[in-house]
Amino acid sequence: MITAKNIWKRYNDQVVLERINISVNEGEFVTLVGASGCGKSTFLKMLLGIESPSTGDLLLDNQPIRTEPDSDRGIVFQHYSVFPHMTVLENVMAARAFARKGFSGYLFGQAKRDARTAALEILEQVGLSHAITRYPHELSGGMRQRLAIAQALLGKPRILLLDEPFGALDPGIRADMHQLVLDLWRTYKLTVFMVTHDLKEGFYLGTRLWVFDKVRHDPQAPSAYGATITYDLPIGKIDTSLYEQIDNQLRPVIIPDEPSMETPTHD
Ligand SMILES: Nc1ncnc2c1ncn2[C@@H]1O[C@H](COP(=O)(O)OP(=O)(O)OP(=O)(O)O)[C@@H](O)[C@H]1O
Question: Which part of the chain is the ABC transporter domain (predicted)?
Fold first, then answer.
């Protein structure tokens, strides 16, 4: 379904990603982990089509990924914008209006009725039926992410892209959201790519886990090399020592503070 052939991504003279070669089948749930700034979101944006590889090919069903939004792909970010003056239902219907070709900003007649029916259906799926008349400021963080997921799923995408969608949520709410995402993945037979900072979350949710990391460093030119996929693991088939190894690799290196020259050191 998705194939990446020797992808490199550069911003000006900064190499962000290099030598990405992968193949993903329909229905896989891929979780992406790696140090901050190593290009995970950039990879998701290439899958969405709002960024393109600098070199190499990124293919969906053997065709280059289209650079305009279409119903194949939906995305949820950690923080996202809603229309504050619109209710939950109106926000989801607005997502439909934006997704329509030749967008005019408004839906009329049958198109509006269809959008309302589709929006109500997806809001029920994400557990927001009871809140359709609420405004965004009346929603909890978890409910807001449910709304974001409803918007992303409205066009019935085949691919759902999740960029740290639960990073800002409390642990209990996160557990509910994990269940929701797994239910939606199974119900809609989605292919999911999810960036997370939480390795445990990555192992729990995914069928496959990718670790992004830089394997080449030039201290004189820190931007000369990018990250690549250093581990591509089928989940459920690896032993715990490897888990610990990756966990250690992802831990930020803590540099001790230099002792201050002004602080007296004598007792
Ligand atoms: N549009 C852009 N123009 C220039 N540089 C960019 C652009 N987008 C991203 N970058 C740079 O590319 C690198 C990778 O960013 P990206 O957001 O993909 O990393 P990430 O792994 O998702 O990080 P995090 O885990 O902190 O979200 C960063 O150094 C970032 O500054």
Answer: 2-239
